[in-house]
C-alpha cells in the first residue's frame, strides 16, 4: 500500500471541475463557498484564465488571495483576475484589492513585469483601494510612471502603503512623490529596504507635509550609511538619521517614526533610529 493519504472528496471535486472548463464556469453560481478557495488556487497555479475570470466575477468572499499566489510574474493570469474584478463594475446586481469596491490589494514576494504594473494602474476596480501591499515585490527594473498613476487614482482613499523590500532607487521614488503627497488619508507607510539617498529621503519627508493622518512611518536609512561593501557605517547612521528626524519635525508633528538599515546578514537584526539609536547585535 502507498504511504500517501488518499485524496479528499474536496480535492477530487476540484480536479473534476478543472478538467471540464465549461462545466466549472457553468457551476459557479451554485458552487458551495467551501469550493471557491481551493478551486481558485488550482486554477491560478495552472493558468486557467477563463475559469479565473469567471470565478472573480462571482467571488463570494470579501478578500481575494491574489498576493499569496503570485510566486512568479505571469501577465495573462494576473490580467484574468483584474478582468474578472472589472466585470463587477458593469453588473447592476453584484454577486454574492464583492458588494463593495475592492479595498485591499496584496501582492507580495514576487516579480512583476512592466506589463503587470501597467495593468494594475489601468484597472478601474482598484481606484478605491484603502490598503496596498507590494512587500518584497522588486520594482528596481520597472518604469515607475504607471505606479504613480495608480497612487494618483487612490489618493482619496488609500490608508496603508507597504513598499518594504521593493529596492526602489532615487529616480523611481522621485517620480512617485507628487502622487504620494496627495494621499491625505494615509495612516501607515513602510519604505524599509529601498536604496534611497539622503537628499531624496529629505525630499520624501517634505512631501509628507499634508499627510496629517499618519500614525506610523517606516523609512530606510540613507545610502550614505553604508560602505562600498554594503556594511553599515555606524557613525554615519547615528549622525544622519537624527538629521532626517529633525527635517520631519520641521514639516509637521510626527507620531511613530523610525529609520532603519537593511537586515544584518549576520544577526538578522536592523540598526534602528526612533529618537534613539539602537544598533543590531553585531555592533553592540
Question: Characteristics of this structure?
Answer:
10 helices; alpha/beta; LRRC14/PRAME; Leucine-rich repeat, LRR (right-handed beta-alpha superhelix); 2 domains; elongated; eight-stranded mixed beta sheet; about 280 residues; LRR_dom_sf
How far apart are the first and last residues' alpha carbons, in Å? 57 Å
Radius of gyration: 22 Å
CATH secondary-structure class of the largest domain: Alpha Beta
Class derived from helix and strand content: alpha/beta
Keywords: Leucine-rich repeat, Repeat
Protein name: Oogenesin-1-like isoform X3
Organism: Microtus ochrogaster (Prairie vole)
Write the layout of secondary structure elements.
Layout lengths: L8 H11 L1 H7 L8 H10 L3 H9 L17 H15 L14 E3 L7 H9 L8 E3 L11 H9 L6 E3 L7 H11 L7 E3 L7 H9 L9 E5 L13 H18 L4 E5 L11 E2 L3 E2 L6
Parallel strand pairs: 1-2, 2-3, 3-4, 4-5, 5-6
Antiparallel strand pairs: 6-7, 7-8
Protein name: Oogenesin-1-like isoform X3
Organism: Microtus ochrogaster (Prairie vole)
InterPro entries: LRR_dom_sf (IPR032675), LRRC14/PRAME (IPR050694)
Description:
With 284 residues, the chain is of the alpha/beta class. The chain folds into two domains: 9-69, no CATH class; 100-283, Leucine-rich repeat, LRR (right-handed beta-alpha superhelix) (Alpha-Beta Horseshoe). It has helices at residues 9-19, 21-27, 36-45, 49-57, 75-89, 114-122, 145-153, 170-180, 198-206, 234-251; strands at residues 104-106, 131-133, 160-162, 188-190, 216-220, 256-260, 272-273, 277-278. An eight-stranded mixed sheet has the order 1-2-3-4-5-6-7-8, covered by helices on one side. Residues 92-96 have low confidence and may be disordered. It comes from Microtus ochrogaster. Keywords: Leucine-rich repeat, Repeat. InterPro entries: LRR_dom_sf, LRRC14/PRAME. This is Oogenesin-1-like isoform X3.
Amino acid at each position: 500500500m502507498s504511504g500517501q493519504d488518499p485524496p479528499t472528496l474536496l480535492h477530487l471535486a476540484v480536479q473534476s471541475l478543472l478538467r471540464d472548463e465549461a462545466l466549472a464556469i457553468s457551476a459557479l453560481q451554485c458552487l458551495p463557498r467551501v469550493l471557491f478557495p481551493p478551486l481558485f488556487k488550482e486554477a491560478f497555479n495552472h493558468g486557467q484564465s477563463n475559469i479565473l475570470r469567471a470565478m472573480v466575477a462571482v467571488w463570494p468572499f470579501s478578500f481575494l488571495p491574489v498576493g499569496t499566489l503570485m510566486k512568479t510574474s505571469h501577465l495573462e493570469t494576473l490580467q484574468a483576475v483584474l478582468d474578472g474584478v472589472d466585470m463587477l463594475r458593469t453588473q447592476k446586481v453584484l454577486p454574492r484589492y464583492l458588494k463593495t469596491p475592492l479595498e485591499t490589494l496584496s501582492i507580495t514576494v514576487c516579480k512583476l513585469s512592466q506589463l503587470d504594473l501597467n495593468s494594475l494602474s489601468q484597472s478601474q476596480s482598484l481606484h478605491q483601494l484603502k490598503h496596498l501591499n507590494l512587500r518584497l515585490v522588486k520594482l528596481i527594473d520597472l518604469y515607475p510612471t504607471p505606479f504613480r498613476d495608480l497612487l494618483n487614482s487612490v489618493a482619496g482613499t488609500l490608508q496603508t502603503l507597504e513598499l518594504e523590500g521593493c529596492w526602489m532607487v532615487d529616480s523611481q521614488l522621485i517620480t512617485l512623490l507628487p502622487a504620494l503627497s496627495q494621499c491625505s488619508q494615509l495612516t501607515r507607510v513602510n519604505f524599509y529596504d529601498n536604496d534611497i539617498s539622503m537628499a531624496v529621503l529629505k525630499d520624501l519627508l517634505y512631501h509628507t507635509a499634508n499627510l496629517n493622518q499618519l500614525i506610523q512611518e517606516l523609512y530606510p536609512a540613507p545610502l550614505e550609511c553604508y560602505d562600498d561593501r554594503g556594511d553599515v557605517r555606524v557613525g554615519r547612521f547615528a549622525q544622519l538619521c537624527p538629521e532626517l528626524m529633525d527635517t520631519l519635525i520641521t514639516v509637521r508633528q510626527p507620531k511613530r517614526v523610525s529609520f532603519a538599515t537593511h537586515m544584518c546578514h549576520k544577526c538578522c537584526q536592523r540598526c534602528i533610529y526612533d529618537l534613539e539609536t539602537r544598533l543590531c547585535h553585531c555592533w553592540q
